[in-house]
């Protein structure tokens, strides 16, 4: 077979890996937030939100920084808010989709 060599991508998506970890955590969060795992979920989401915000800063996509600063504050484990009920349960998948969108859209030019 005659295969053409692949052309490397001109961009790299550094925020994709933390987003792919945070999204399933947030999807499972409604099951975990009522028990012993609640603090672990808050730590995972808050830390990965800060990492994603840092990659947004590096990519000069400032609007994502505001979004992930809000996620960091809402899911912070140090002074957790006493959120519960259907609104908090619905916020989990919304944040998961936000992470996935950011992971796909935050990109920086690949160094040559």
From TrEMBL:
Keywords: Membrane, Transmembrane, Transmembrane helix. The chain crosses the membrane at residues 38-57, 62-81, 87-106. The keyword Transmembrane helix applies. This is Uncharacterized protein.
